[in-house]
Amino acid sequence: MKSFRRHSATVNAGSMADIAFLLLIFFLVTTTISADKGILRQLPSDCPDIKECIKDINERNLLRISLNHKQEIFIENKLVKLEEVKDIVGAFVDNNGASECDYCTGDKLSEASDHPREAVISLSHDALTKYELFISIQDEITKAYYELRARYIEMKFNKTPSQITDEELITVKKAYPFIVSEVMVKRN
């Protein structure tokens, strides 16, 4: 009698790994990976002794910028447009209220900063403030400082910002330090 054995059907899977590898390469090459956007900021260094790092700020050296849930911009409780922020920040920082800054060209107003090294920008925003508005305000503040620093570089070194050395950049950053305090106002 003849025995019947059933042979299970097998599929040659040797080329499956090759196909999977080719598909992987195809999708990696054809897929676009979106880059995350963000703000390039260097965080302050850690302060070992907190008492040395905390200092009182004179009220006139503090510029308050507030963003609310209606996407409105307030500077010192006055409603302003986005296009005005750069000029207001630049005038505030470069005010020279104490008349001690030999490179400042400000109006020496009594309600603006004493010296660029003393000027602090306080940026507060509501929890419902849109990210785009927050970034736009950050950009305007950065533009104001860039213009002040570029003018200082031209006056002090007779160069453009792209031509200065690292040592000169340190001098510029000491003359116009970028001091921004950011606070999110929580809603109840």
From TrEMBL:
<dbReference type="Pfam" id="PF02472">
    <property type="entry name" value="ExbD"/>
</dbReference>
<keyword id="KW-0472">Membrane</keyword>
<keyword id="KW-0812">Transmembrane</keyword>
<protein>
    <submittedName>
        <fullName>Biopolymer transporter ExbD</fullName>
    </submittedName>
</protein>
<keyword id="KW-1003">Cell membrane</keyword>
<keyword id="KW-0813">Transport</keyword>
<comment type="similarity">
    <text>Belongs to the ExbD/TolR family.</text>
</comment>
<keyword id="KW-1133">Transmembrane helix</keyword>
<keyword id="KW-0653">Protein transport</keyword>
<dbReference type="InterPro" id="IPR003400">
    <property type="entry name" value="ExbD"/>
</dbReference>
